[in-house]
Amino acid sequence: MTGRELDFSNPEVIRLVTESFVPVAENVTALQSSDDDKGRFFREVAVQGRMKGRSRPDVSHQGIYAFAADGMSLASGNPLEAEGTLARLREALASWEQRDGDHGLTRDFSDQDYGDHEYPEDGVVLRLTVRDLPRSKGSPFVEGEERFAKTWNNDLVWLRREDVHALLSDPLTVGARRNVPQALLQRLARFHLRDIVRGEPYAWSPDAVERIELVAEVTRRDGSMAALAYRGHVLLRDGVEFRDAHEPIDWAFDNELDAAICGQASCNEEAQTFEALELLLAGQRSGAHQYNVRTNDAGPAPIGFSLELAGNSPWERTQPHVMRTWTRAGESRLPTATTVTDEPYYGEPLAARKGSR
Hints:
alpha+beta; 2 domains; eight-stranded antiparallel β-sheet; globular; disordered C terminus
């Protein structure tokens, strides 16, 4: 992830992709293992190129794939530097010029329903941004890790209508206070307060939540509008063991997040929804996971999280990361469940809630 971030900031890569391709960014963890048309389409493309003979759900398909609309693979690879990416893009353009007629897929994937029936149409979506915070002189980066100093990542948080109500004081009168219910806070903590700055960590286990509290207080009223302030704290602790993704090394870490929470919001009492919402978390994190590139930077070190209302663009309707590695029945798509637990996002079986598909 961090390598590709530098790769795709290259001006020539940007020019070539913009002028000659339709760029698409997808979470390969779900695509390589999901049993829907979207996943099958991707795998049919992948096995023509770099995944030929290796397309198993537990083998990472991460990489760059250039293909035609009919599914013909034009070029693929997994370069982490600009020159390698440029070579694949130029190879794809050459393949496109040389092809004759339609090729590729053995079935029709058009006119499929790819709507997400779990999307909270009656709720709100929050955009989550996670980044390392500036470090004191006494806790510098290990040599070679400085390149990650300004790295950041984002995710999305889905809140149903009942979740929105849980974040509001009741009644909405000045001075009214409310403790946000634990069911919602536990979901936010375990599935979203993860160190995703450089990669994909596990979800926190249920026992990892030692403390999380958030108090909402009404600070001002103006007609049907109410202003709220939030204050809270979270403490998460969990232990993990894993084999290094690249070296024959066994790791064990005690992971921890200890952070203060503050925020503000503006809500419409008549509509019972937010006009604006901002939450900030700042504190110390420590530990590492198999795929979050922290084994050489386990801390403790400062980290920050921000949550704000998202828009309605296509990418802002993308599922939260932890949902993209589950089946509709709430079971892990990966045999080893490498990045999440086997639990449904909303705390109840997804199979009982999904629409027809």
